[in-house]
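Sequence, please.
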């Protein structure tokens, strides 16, 4: 198995294990960290363990290899086809054109969590919780004291770190903030001798174009499914 196959499970059983809760063949992140959940393999045993883990009425945000197929005892709340993209190689593109004013990039932490949640709630880059920032480095840009753009690290498996929560307030789009922040996050990942990867919705053409310009290439096409246990 490649390190990025069944990547949530691999993260929760390796480098992100400190944030994991589990029952049998199912794992999830602590709820205040993120809603991402996984099982060792899809099938009756995996879904049985998942049901025990989340309980009646509980939800699970999964990355699946194929489109989710209806299964008794589960209700699908949302789904989305994804791309898993990887940035191979040792180099990084130039940070930004010299003619572009470079805003101050700041490190984000616990004190910034309410603003980070507000920004991700507005822009919806993916599941983000009160403690998601604890998973790795998070960087942001402020304008007049307000957080208007951010990016950081989420899933970590041996040799790879995910670039995640890349978002910009709509009033500040088109200024290159997302690219600046991504490159700084990626620089830190490279300095640790790791390879950056990310996930993006397949219909997000604008983001995919940016990621390809930076050097990301599609590896696989998983499917996101948000499920609720019923009964």
């Amino acid at each position: 198995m490649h390190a990025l196959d069944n990547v949530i499970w691999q993260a929760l059983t390796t480098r992100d294990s400190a944030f994991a809760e589990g029952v049998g063949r199912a794992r999830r992140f602590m709820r205040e960290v993120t809603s991402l959940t996984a099982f060792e393999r899809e099938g009756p045993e995996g879904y049985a363990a998942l049901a025990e883990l989340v309980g009646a009425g509980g939800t699970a945000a999964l990355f699946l290899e194929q489109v989710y197929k209806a299964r008794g005892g589960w209700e699908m709340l949302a789904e989305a086809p994804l791309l898993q993209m990887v940035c191979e190689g040792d180099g990084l593109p130039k940070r930004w054109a010299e003619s572009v004013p470079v805003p101050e990039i700041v490190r984000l932490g616990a004190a910034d969590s309410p603003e980070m949640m507000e920004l991700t709630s507005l822009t919806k880059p993916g599941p983000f919780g009160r403690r998601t920032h604890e998973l790795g480095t998070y960087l942001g840009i402020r304008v007049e004291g307000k957080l208007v753009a951010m990016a950081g690290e989420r899933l970590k498996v041996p040799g790879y770190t995910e670039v995640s929560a890349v978002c910009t307030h709509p009033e500040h789009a088109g200024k290159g903030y997302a690219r600046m922040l991504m490159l700084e996050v990626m620089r830190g990942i490279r300095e640790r001798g790791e390879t950056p990867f990310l996930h993006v919705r397949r219909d997000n053409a604008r983001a995919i174009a940016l990621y390809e310009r930076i050097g990301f290439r599609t590896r696989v096409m998983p499917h996101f499914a948000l499920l609720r246990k019923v009964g």
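The domain at 7-82+223-229 is CATH 3.40.630.30 (Aminopeptidase).
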